[in-house]
Amino acid sequence: MKTSKLSIRLLWYITPLVILPLLFLGGFTLTNVTNSTKKQAELIVSRFVEQQQQKIFNYIDSFHSITRLLSTSPVLADFLAREPESKNQYIERLGELMNVFASYSEAYPDIVSINYVAPDGKSDAFYSSQLTPAPDSYPFFDQVLQSNLRQQQFMIPKEDGSTSLYFVHPIYNIDYYLKQPQQLGFIVVHVEPSILNASILEAPFNNTLNLFLTTKGQILFSSDYDLRGSYLSEYELEQIKRLADYGKLASIELSSIDKEERIIYAVQMTDGDYFISTTPKDLLYQSGKAISLITALIVIISVISLPILIYIVVRNLLLTPVELLGAASHRVGDGDLSVYLPAHTNDEVGVLFNDFNHMVNQIRHYQDELEEYKHHLEEKVESRTKALEAMNSKLEVAIAQAEQANQLKSRFLANMSHEIRTPLTAIMGFTEQLLHNKDAVNDEQHLSTILRNSKHLLELINNILDLSKIEAEKLAVERGPCNVVQLIHDIDSIIRPLANEKQLAFNINYQLPVPKTINSDTTRLKQILINIASNAVKFTEKGSISIDISYNSNKQHLEFAIQDTGIGMSEREVERVFKPFEQADATTTRRFGGTGLGLCISKNLAQLLGGDVQLISEPGNGSCFTVQVAAHLNAEQLQNEGFIHSYEQLSPSKDVQLSFAANSFDANILVAEDNPDNQLLIKLLLQTWGLEPDIAKNGAEAVEMALVNDYQLIIMDMQMPVMGGLEATQMLRHAAYDGPIIALTANVMKTDVDTYIEAGCDEALAKPIDKDALEQVLVSYLHIEKDSQNKWENLLKSEKFQQINDNYRSKLPDYLSQVVQLYRAKEWEALRSLAHSLKGSAGCFSFEAIHKTAGQLENALRSNQTEQVEQCYNALIDALEEAS
C-alpha cells in the first residue's frame, strides 16, 4: 500500500510529541520521588500530630469547663457566703459540698481530687477519689496568685515518671458584676491525663517516637517510657522550637535520645509545651528507591513502543477513513448524489460516515421539497398565518390567567388581612380594658374572648404553615393506632356545641360493621373532619348536619360522609372550592369569613393518608363531603373481633387514670426554664395539680440541682442561656441520672424531636403549653415512679425482708466492737471505710440514726476535721448501742 503524505507528516509529529513528554515525565518522576515521599510523610505525620493536638486541646477544655462549673456551684457559694452558727452546721455544709465534689468525681473518672483553696493557700474543702489527704501546698500556687488569668492549667511531673494535670479557677463573691470583685479562693482539680497518655502511645508509622516537652526541654510524656523525666539539650530544643514555628518536617539527630537521624514534626501547645513525632529517616524514604527503578523501566519501554503503536492505530482508525471520506466528498461536489459510504464501526468515524450519507439523502430530499415549495408556496404561507393566530390566542389566554392569578392574590391578601386583624383587634382591645380598668366587671368574659380569638389566630397561622409544607412536599404524616369511636367522640365534643348555638340538629350514624381501630395519623384525620364539619355548621342556617361512618371492604377504606342542609354550591363553585386561597365567591367571603385554605389542606391531607375528599352539592340543597382514608388493617385487625358489630360497643372508653383528679402524687419536680413568665405559668399549673416544683434558670443550674437533690421528674426547656437543655440532658444522662426528662420546646419538627430523644429525653412537648398534654405526660411518668416506690414499700413489708433485717440487726454488736477497736488504734482510713459501709447498709434497712451518724463520721474523717471526729464517733456508738 502506498504511504500517503499525511502518514509521513503524522509520523514526524507523533514521534517528538510522544517521546519528549515521556522523557520529561520520567526525568521529573525520578527527580521528584523523594520530594513526593517527603510530602506524603509530612502530610501523614502533620495530620497525626494535629489530630493529637486537637484531642489534647478538647480534653483540657472539657476540664476547664468542669472547673468553671465547680467555681460557680450554688452549694460552694452557700458554703462561702455565711459564717456557720455552729460546728454541726459547718460540717453539714461541708458534707453537702463534698457530695457535689464526689458527684463530679464519679461522673469524670480522670479526676483524682477536687480542692477549695483559700487565698492564703490553705485547703478548706478537699475531696480525693483515692482517699489521700489534702496537700500542704501546690508548687504552682505562687504563680496562680500572681496571674490575672481566669483559668489556668499546670503539668507537674511525679517521682515515678508520670505527669499530673492541675486545673485552677478563681472564685469571686456574688456581687462580681455590681462592684469591685472580691476573690474568695480557688478551685483546684487534680486530673490523671488518660487522653495524653493514650495520644502519646499512638503512632502513624512503626518505630515512631512521640514526645511531649516542656519549654525547658523536659520530657513529660513519651511512647518510650524510659525517656520520661529526661531532658533534651538546649541546641536540640532550639531546633524543635524553630520546626514548630515553620510547621514542616525536618531531619534532626537527637543525641540526647539516640544517634539515629530522624524526621521530626513539632507543634506548640497553648501553654508553651511542645508535642513532637519522630520517625527514622531510612524508614520514611525506603519506598522511594523502588519507585525510581520502576519508573525508569516504564519510561524506556514507553519511548520505544508508544510511537509505533500510536501510528498503527491512527492509520487504521483515522487516516484510511479520511481518505474514503475525501474521495466521496469530491464526487458529491461534482454533482454525483448517488455516493454511499460503507457501514463502519460505531465510533466517531462511523457516526461521521452516517452523517455524510444522511447529508447526501437530505440534499436529495431538499431538492425534491424545493420543487414542491415552488408549487405550494401560497398554501404554506396561509398555514403559517393560522399557526401564528393560534399562538396569539394561547398567549391571550395565558395573559388573562396571569391577571386572574394576580387578582386572586390581591383578594387573598385582603381577606387574610381582615381575618388576622379581626381577632387581633379583640385581643388588644379586651387586654387594654383589663390593664387600664382594674374594676372591670366581666373580666372572665373578657379573658374568654381573648382566649377564643387567640385560638382562632393560631388556627389561621397553622393553616398557612400546613399549606406551605404541603406545597413544599415536606409535610410528614405518621401511622399509628387510631380508635374510631374515640375519634368520632372527640369530633362530636367539638361540633355539637357549635351546632347547638345555631339550633341545628347534629347526628352521627354508623353503618356497621366498622373497624375498632385503624392505622393512620389521628391528628391529621381529626383536622380533616373538624375542618369540613365546622364548615358545614358555618354555611348552614337551619336544618341539620350528619356524619355517616362506614367501611369499604373492597378498597379497605374508612369513609366519613358529612351532609348538611346549607347554602350548597354550583358546579363552577365545586371546581374551585379545593383550590388554595379560594372560596365559592366574594359574597361568601364577606358573609362567612375564612381564608379559603381549610378544604385545600383537607384534600391534600386525605391524599397523604391514602384516600381523598369528594364533594356533591347543589345550590340551596346543601352539600355532602365524603372523606376516604386508608385503614391499613393488619391480619389480626381483619378478624371478626377487630370490628364493631353492635351499637352497644360505640361508647368511647376514657382512661381516667391519666388525670390528676384521679391520682395523688408526692413528687419532687425540677423545672428548667429561663423565661420568668413561663416559669410562673408552669409553676401555677403544677400547683393547681398539687405539685410544688423547684425552678432552675438555665441548664447549668439544672445539672447542679439534679446532682444534689432527688427529683422524680425534670421538665427541661431546650433553649436557655449559659447551658442549653440539650447539653444539660446529655450531661445528666452521662452522670447517671435515670429519672424521666420531658423536653419543652417550640421546635417540634420530627428531626428536632428525634434529636431530643437521642440526647436522653423521654418525651417532647410543644410550646405554647397544652395543659391536657402536659397533664397526661406527667401522670403517666409519675405513675411509673409511684409503682416503683410501691414495689419497694411492699418489699420492705415482706416476711423475707424482715428476716434479712433481723439478721442485719444481729450483726450490729459486731460492727460496734469493730468501730471501737479501729478508733482506739487510730486507724482512720479503715474507720472511714467502715463508716461509709455502715452509712449505706443502715440506710437500706431503715436504721436512720446509724445512717446519719455514720455519714457524719465519714465526712469528718474525709475532710480531716479532727475536732469533729470524736463527737461523731460518740454519736455513732450511741446509735449502734440503741439499735442493738
From TrEMBL:
Domain Histidine kinase: 415-633
Record-linked Pfam families: HAMP, HATPase_c, HisKA, Hpt, Response_reg
Domain (HPt): residue spans on this chain: 797-884
Topology within the bilayer: Multi-pass membrane protein
TM region(s), chain numbering: 12-30, 290-314
Cellular localisation: Cell inner membrane
Modified residues (4-aspartylphosphate): D717
Start and end residues of each HAMP domain: 316-368
EC number(s) from the headed UniProt entry: 2.7.13.3
Catalytic activity: ATP + protein L-histidine = ADP + protein N-phospho-L-histidine
Chief location of this protein within or outside the cell: membrane
All residue ranges annotated as the Response regulatory domain in the record: 668-782
Protein name: histidine kinase
